[in-house]
Amino acid sequence: MSQSRASQNTYLLVPILLIALLLSTAVIRGPNLVSLSGFGSAIIVSAPLILATFSLVALAVAGRGTVDLAVGPLLAFINVTIVKLNGLGIVTGPFGVILVALGIGVLYQLFFALIIIFVRVQPIIVALSGFLALTGINLVILPRPGGTAPDWMSSWGLGNTIFSPVLLIVLLAIAAWLLFTMTSFYTNLRLMGYDERAAYTSGVRINVVRIGAHVIAGLFVGLGAICYTALISSGDPTQGTTMTLTAVTALVLGGVSLSGGRGGVAGGLLGALNLFLIGYVLATFNFGSTQAFVTQLFYGLILVLSLLLTLLVPVIGRYLYFISPFAAFVVLGCVVLGIMLYVSTRDTYGVAAVASDALKTNPDVLTRYLLLPPQSGSGVALPDLSPLQKAVFGFAAILAVLTLTVRVVVSEAVSVRLGAFIYVFVSALILLLFLVVGEQSHAAGIAAAGQLVGITA
Amino acid sequence: MTQTFGDGSRGGGLFVPRSRALVWLNLAVTFVVAAISFGLGFWQGISAQVVILYTVVLAAVLFWLINYIAVIFEPRPSSLDTGSAPAAAGGVWAGNRVLIITMSVMLIVYLLITATVPSFRSLGNLIAFLLLEAILVFAFKVSNRFAHGRSAFIGLIVLLALIVISSFTINGFLSAPNIKAILLFAAFLGIACVGQTLVALLGGLDLSIPFVIGSSNIGLLFLIGLGVPSWLAVVFVLLIGATLGFLNGVLSYRLQGQALILTLGMGFAIAGLVQILTSIGSSFGGNVFGTVPKWLQNLAAMNGRTFGLAVPPTILLWIVIAIIVIVGLRYSAFGRYIYALGGNRRSAKLIGVSEFKYWTVAYTISGFSAALTGCLLLGWSGGGFIGVGDQYLFTTLAAVVIGGTSLMDGYGGYGYTVIGVLVLQVLSAFLIGIGLKYEWQQFIFGLLILPMVALYGRAPDIRAQV
User: Fold this and answer.
1) A interface mutation test: which of B97, B151, B209, B268 has the most A CBs within 10 A?
2) Share of chain A above pLDDT 70, in %
3) Which of A240-249, A338-347, A354-363, B261-270 has the lowest average pLDDT?
4) pLDDT for A213 beyond 60
5) Of A74, A10, A22, which is closest to residue A455 (Cα–Cα)?
6) Name one GO molecular function term (chain A) (predicted).
7) How far apart are CA A211 and CA A214, in angstroms?
8) Are residues B275 and A133, on separate chains, in Cβ contact within 8 Å?
9) Predicted local confidence at residue A234, as pLDDT
10) Domain residue spans in chain A?
C-alpha cells in the first residue's frame, strides 16, 4: 500500500460507517427486520428509491451539475402511464409494459440530453422545467391515486419472500452498472464529468458520451418505475416531489459529487439504503401525530449534513489514506452481521456486547433508549441455532475474514479498485445468512422492513 | 419600468430619431390611433374625463414607443454592413433556430390543448394563437437589435400579447376586480421573488422559499393564538425568517454549486421543525387554528383598503419594495457589488468585495422576503396552512428566469423579475379564464421556462471554451 496515494473511494467511508450504525440500530429496535418477510418487504420498499438514485448517479457523474430534479415526477409519470394503459386495456403484457416503461424513461432523458447539448441551457433549469411539466401532466393523466397495476405484477409487491422479481431487477441493475464500469465509455464519462474541456481536447466525443449517460439514467428510471408500480400496485401521481428529494439526498449521502466525475453504484446503493433505514428507524420510535414531521425534519437535516460532509472528503482522503473503505466495510459488515444474527436468534434482548461495541454507548443508555422491552407472544421467537449451524457459521466467518483480508491486502497493494469477485463473495455470504434466517423465521411477522443486501455494495 | 434599453448613446434616454420626417410620421400615426381610441371611448359610453385621460396617456406612450422602435431600426452610422445574407435555407435555420423551435413548441402546445379541451376550439382562439406567433416573430426579430435588455423587451411584448389575447377571449378580463386579483397574486409572488433575484444574481438559487413561506404562515398564526401581540408576532416571524436565510447563506457559502440542493434540504428541515413545534400539545397534527387580526386581513385581502382607496395595501407594498430594490440595485454600492460578484467573482474579490458578506446578505434577504410573503398570505387566506407556499417552489424561479435574470453571469435585476411575475400571473389568469385546470398550467409553465432561458441564458459552445 503506497503512502502517497489515497484510495479512490475514500468518500465511501462516511456512508459505510453510517449504514453500519443505522443497520445495527434498526435491527436492535425492530428485530422483525431480520426475518424472511422483513427482508422481503425491505427490498420491495427500497427498490424504487435505489433505482432512482442510480439514475441520478449516472447523470451526476456526467458533470455540469446535472441533478435531475425531475426524477421523481418522471418515475410517477411512467407509473401512472403504465396504470392508465393497463386500465384502458392497451398494454397489459409484461413485455409491453416493460418496453413502455423503459421507452418513456429513455425518450425523456434523450430529449433532456439533446436540449443540454444543442440549446446549451444549464441542466438544472431543464430539470426544473421537466419537474413542473411532468408534475402537471401526471395529475392530468390520473387526477388522484388509483387504478390497478397489471395482473402479472400482483405477486411482486407482497414482500413475503426475499427472492422476488424486484430483487432480480435491482441485482440486474447493479450488475449492469458494474459491467458498464469496465468499459472505456465509462472512463470517458468520468473524464467528461471531471473536466469537460480536457475531455473534449483529448478527443472524447462528449456529445455521444453525454447522450449515453442520459440513456442509462432513463433505463434506470424505467426499472424504478416498474418496481414502484409493483410496490403500490396502483398509480400515484402525487409522490414525485418526495421521491425526488429522497433520491437526491441518497445521492449526496452516497458521496457522489454533484459537480461531476466522482461517484458510482456503490455510493448510490449505500445512500439509498441509508435513507430507507433512516425511515425505518424513525418508524420504530413512536412520535404520535408528529411522526411525519419528524421524518421530514430528519430527511432535511441529513441532506444538509451530508452535503456539508462532502466538504470533508478531501480531508478524509488526505488523513485517512491508510484506511481502505473496503476494509472498513468488511470489518463493520462482520460486526453488523453478528448483531443481526444475535438479535434474530435470541428472544431476549440483553445488552449485546457487540452492539455496545458498535454503538459506542454505555449499557445504561442502551437499555433506556435503544432497546425495546422484551415482548411476550408477538414478534419473532426463534429457536437457538443447532450445533451444526453454529459450526457452519463459524467456519464461514473464519473463511470470509481470511479470504477478504488476503484479497484486501492484494488489491490495496496493486490498485484501489474492488474486483467483481468481492461482490460475489460477500453476496454469497449474505445469502447464506438469509437462508438460515428464512429457514427459522416463522411466516408470521409484521410487515416491517429492513435491508441487508445493502452491505453487499 | 425596467432598466433603459440600449447603450444610451442613441438619442440619449429620449430616443429621438435623427430624421425629422420620421418624427412627424410617428406623430401622425400616434394622432390617428389616439383619435380612433377617443371615438371608441365615447362610443362605449365612458365618461368624458376618463376618455380624455386615457387618450392622452395612450398617445404619450405610443409616441415614445414608436420613436424608440424607429431609433432601434435606424442604420447606425458607425457600424459596417455585416456581410451578405448567408445561403438561404441553412442561413434561415442558423439565424433563427431558437425562434423556430419556440414557435414549434407553441404550436405543439396549442394543438395539444385544442385536442384535449373541446371548449377551446373556437375561431377566436385560433386568431389569438396566430397573433401570438406573429408577436413572437416580431419580438425575436426586433430583440436581435438589442445588446442589452432583450429579455425585458421580449417579456414586455409577451405580456402585452397575453393581455391583448386575454381581453379578446375572456369576458371581464379587464374588469377592475380581475385586474386587482392578478395584481394581488403578483404582489405575493413578487415579494417572494425579491430574495430569489438577488441570490440568482450571485449565481445561487434558493429553494427553501416555499417552506419558509409555509412555516411562517402557520408559525405566525400559532404565535397569535398563544396570545402574543400580533405586531410583535409578525416582527418575530420576520426575524426568524431572516435568521434562517442567514443560516442558508452561511451553510451554502462553501458549497455554492450545490446551494440549490442544500436550501431544499434546509427548507424541508425547517418545515418539519415548525410543524413539530406548532403541533406539540395540540390534537390536530400540523393544523393550526386561530383568528387573524383585522389589520393583517385588511393588508392582504381582496377587499382591503389603503387610506380609503379600494386597493389592497399589499399591492402598494409590493410597488414600494420593487422601487426600493430596483433603485438599490442600480445606484447603491451594495447593488453594484452584487452585480460585480455575479459578473466576475474573481475580479470582484481582487478589488476587495467580500464574497461571504454579500452571499449571506442575499440569502438573508431571501429568507426575510419569504417570511413576509408567508405573513401576507396568512392575511389573505385567514387560516394557517403549511402547503400555502408549495406553488412557489418553482414559480419564484420561473419568474426570475422568464424575466431574464441570468443564472450565470450576474446579468438582470429586479425590474426584469417584475416583468416575469406579471407574465406568469397574466398567463395563469388567462389559462384559468379559458378553463384550463391548474395541472395544465403547471405543464405549460414548465415548458415556458425552457425557451425563455434559451433566449439569453445559453452557455457558449465547448469549442468556444477550450
Assistant:
1) B268
2) 74
3) A354-363
4) yes
5) A22
6) transmembrane transporter activity
7) 5
8) no
9) 85
10) 11-313, 335-372+383-456
Q: Which residues of B touch A296 (CB under 8 A)?
A: 268-269, 271-272, 275
Query: Looking at the complex, does the CB of residue B445 fall below 8 Å from at least one CB of chain A?
Result: yes
Chain A residues 278-307 within an 8 A CB cutoff of chain B: 288-290, 292-304, 307
Nearest to B211 by CA among B288, B267, B272, B287: B267
Residue contact A133–B279, C-beta within 8 A: no
DSSP string for residues in B98-131: HHHHHHHHHHHHHHHHHHH-GGG--HHHHHHHHH
In total, the C-beta contacts within 8 angstroms joining chain A to chain B are: 176
Nearest-CA distance from B212 to chain A in Å? 13
CB B351 within 8 A of CB B337: no
C-alpha to C-alpha distance for B439 and A141, rounded to whole angstroms = 10
CB atoms inside a 10 Å sphere around CB A251: 32
Q: Quick one: three-class SS letters along A232-260? A: HCCECCCCHHHHHHHHHHHHHHCCCCCCC
Of residues A172 and A340, the one with the higher pLDDT is A172
| C-beta atoms surrounding A18 within 10 Å | 20
* pLDDT at residue A346 in the model: 63
Whole-number Cα distances in Å, A41 to A157, A225, A455 = 8, 17, 17
Which residues from A are below 8 Å from B255, CB to CB?
307-308, 310-311
Return the closest-CA partner of residue B389 out of B380, B401, B381, B377: B377
**Is the pLDDT assigned to residue B414 strictly greater than 80?**
yes
A136 contact B CB<8A: yes
Q: What is the pTM of this model?
A: 0.74
Measured CA to CA, the distance from residue B192 to residue A196 in angstroms comes to 36
C-alpha distances in angstroms, B279 versus A34, A293, A294, B289, B383? 34, 10, 11, 11, 15
Per residue in A270-282, pLDDT (tens digit) is 899 988 888 888 8
The alpha-carbon gap from A26 to the nearest alpha carbon of chain B, in Å, equals 22
- Fold designation for A11-313: ABC transporter involved in vitamin B12 uptake, BtuC (1.10.3470)
Q: Does residue A142 sit at the B interface (CB-CB below 8 Å)? A: no
In angstroms, the CA A349 to CA A339 distance is 11
**DSSP string spanning A107-119?**
HHHHHHHHIIIII
Pair A145, A237: CB distance under 8 Å? yes
Q: What share of chain A is helix, strand, coil (3-state, %, to 5)?
A: 75, 0, 25
Contacts of A196 in chain B (CB under 8 A): 462
DSSP string across A373-392: PPPSSSS--PPPPPHHHHHH
Whether B286 has its CB under 8 Å from any CB of chain A: the answer is yes
Which chain B residues touch A243 with a CB distance below 8 Å? Answer: none
User: Distances from the Cα of B40 to the Cαs of A289, A300, B55, B175, in angstroms?
Assistant: 63, 59, 10, 17
Mean pLDDT of chain B: 80
Distances (CA, A) of A132 to A79, A140, B71, B233, B450: 17, 13, 40, 34, 11
Cell numbers for B73: 431600426
Distance from CA of B128 to the nearest CA of A (A): 23
Residue count of chain A, please give it: 457
Give the integer Cα–Cα distance in Å for A250 and A278: 11
Q: Is B455 on the interface with A (CB under 8 A)?
A: no
Which of A80, A119, A139, A209 to probe the B interface (max B CBs under 10 A)? A119
CB pair distance less than 8 Å for A293 and B453: no
Q: What is the pLDDT of residue A424?
A: 64
Q: Looking at the DSSP assignment, which residues form a beta bridge with residue A146? A: A235
A134 touches chain B (CB under 8 A): yes
Q: Which B positions 261-280 lie with beta carbon below 8 A of chain A?
A: 261-262, 264-273, 275-276, 279-280
